[in-house]
Amino acid sequence: MKTAITRMFGIKYPIICGAMQWLGKPQLCAAVSNAGGMGNLTAGNYETEEDFRAAIRETRKLTSKPFMVGLTILPSVRITSEHHQMYLRVCAEEQVAGIEVSGAPVDKAAGQAAVDMLKKAGVKMFHKVGSVRHALHAEKAGYDGIYAAGIEEGGHPLSDDVTTMILTPRIVESVKIPVVTVGGIANGKTLAAALVLGSEGVMMATRFMATKECVVHDNIKNEILRRQEHETTLICKSLNLQGRALKNKVVDEICKVEERGGGFEDLYPLIAGERMKKAWEDGDVDVAPMMVGQSIGLIHDIPTCEELLETMVKEARKQLEEVSRKFEN
């Protein structure tokens, strides 16, 4: 496959792993990159500069291929603005291939000097957005590409609630930099659909959770296979921090707290990141809000990352060929 994304990074397939709290670590990151895609090392998993830099270097021992670093700039009890500044500086110093930024854009959160620093270091910057207005800002600020994230995605979709089907072509027609589709991507058919909508690649996270290399408990992987597309819901709207999570006991409790007007003090014990870390390790599917997307309905197996990417590309090619034949005389 040849797209603006494969050419930009020198990778085989325009398939990128998204940031995942507690899971986007060297093992999975390297596995995705070695499979021909673009792995993701999630910065928020590391609270000290030493640990973060060590993770980058560990990943480089596991793969010689490029990988992204995922950076979420949203309100957090654990990760501060000083952390964000440190992550950006270390990414520049280590000259990582690219960064995925969610939440506030780098120029607003860290200043234009940070953008200039990353550009000088050759670090490609992608901003994950849910609207045309935010994509236009990122392009003006000097970003190299856009992640168009539809409401279907897990994590924190923008409260504009625009679907992937609409958002991708709207952003493609509005900016001149490459666009990557996010939200509802899990197989070859959705990869083909994204390309037809005008994107230069796809980013997915939930699908990579259900791979052999992902260091999450098997109970969690099997739960993803068992669940369907209608079994996620939006939480934390009352905090202006909308998130999509799998329906479970703690998510039901979160929804009840929000319905009765509970505030941050009531919600924090239920949404704290440590709960998710414990769930990923212990396999308890009800103890934490599991931030996954509607793409769970398309996940039916637990392959290696290499098997997943090869299958997706073959299916996408087949799907596009079948569609093309429908236009033959």
Number of domains: 1
Task: Please give the alpha-carbon distance between the first and last residues.
Answer: 27 Å
Helix content: 40-55%
For the biggest β-sheet, the strand order reads 1-8-7-6-5-4-3-2
Mean pLDDT: 96
Identify low-pLDDT runs: none
Total number of beta strands: 10
- Count of helical regions: 15
Q: What's the CATH architecture?
A: Alpha-Beta Barrel
Rg (CA only): 19 Å
CATH superfamily: Aldolase class I
Commentary on this structure:
- Helix content is 45%, strand content 14%.
- It has 329 residues and is of the alpha/beta class.
- The protein has a single domain, classed as Aldolase class I (TIM Barrel).
- The chain is globular and about 60 Å long.
- The chain is built from 15 helices and ten strands.
- The two termini are 27 Å apart.
- It has helices spanning 4-9, 26-34, 49-62, 81-94, 106-109, 112-121, 132-141, 164-172, 188-196, 206-209, 218-226, 249-259, 264-271, 273-282, 305-325; strands at residues 15-17, 39-42, 67-73, 98-103, 124-129, 145-149, 179-182, 201-204, 232-235, 243-246.
Question: Could you give a quick summary of the protein structure above?
Answer:
With 329 residues, the chain is of the alpha/beta class. It has helices at residues 4-9, 26-34, 49-62, 81-94, 106-109, 112-121, 132-141, 164-172, 188-196, 206-209, 218-226, 249-259, 264-271, 273-282, 305-325, and strands spanning 15-17, 39-42, 67-73, 98-103, 124-129, 145-149, 179-182, 201-204, 232-235, 243-246. The strands form two sheets. The protein has an eight-stranded parallel β-sheet. It has a two-stranded antiparallel ribbon with strand order 9-10.
